[in-house]
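ok new one. same drill as before - structure tokens go in, u give me an amino acid for every spot. 101 of them this time. try not to just spam alanines like last time pls lmao
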């Protein structure tokens, strides 16, 4: 069962999908350029997942001008969702909005 506990971690990283240098703010869990992430957490920020696979953004849903990005891990098939961030590339978001869940 997933806990709602959140651990804020301020970490910079280089996106393993597109190579973008990402400056973390403690809430950064994906690349703002390509929206890909990495499966490192069991609960947000805990770094307890042993998988390390890339998380592909597979779709986005919109509710009241808020976007939720849906992911699937390319290594273990873990599914996850997060809210989009203001720095996220809006063109990439729009491309994913049309994809069904």
């Amino acid at each position: 069962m997933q806990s709602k506990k959140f651990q804020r971690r301020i970490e910079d990283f280089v996106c393993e999908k597109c190579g973008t240098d990402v400056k973390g703010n403690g809430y950064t869990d994906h690349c703002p350029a390509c929206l890909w992430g990495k499966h490192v957490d069991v609960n947000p920020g805990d770094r307890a997942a042993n998988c390390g696979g890339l998380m592909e953004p597979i779709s986005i849903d919109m509710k009241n001008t808020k976007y939720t990005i849906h992911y699937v891990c390319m290594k273990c098939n873990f599914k996850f969702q997060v809210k989009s961030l203001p720095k996220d590339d809006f063109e990439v978001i729009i491309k994913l909005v049309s994809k069904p869940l």
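The radius of gyration is 13 Å. and btw The chain has a mean pLDDT of 89.
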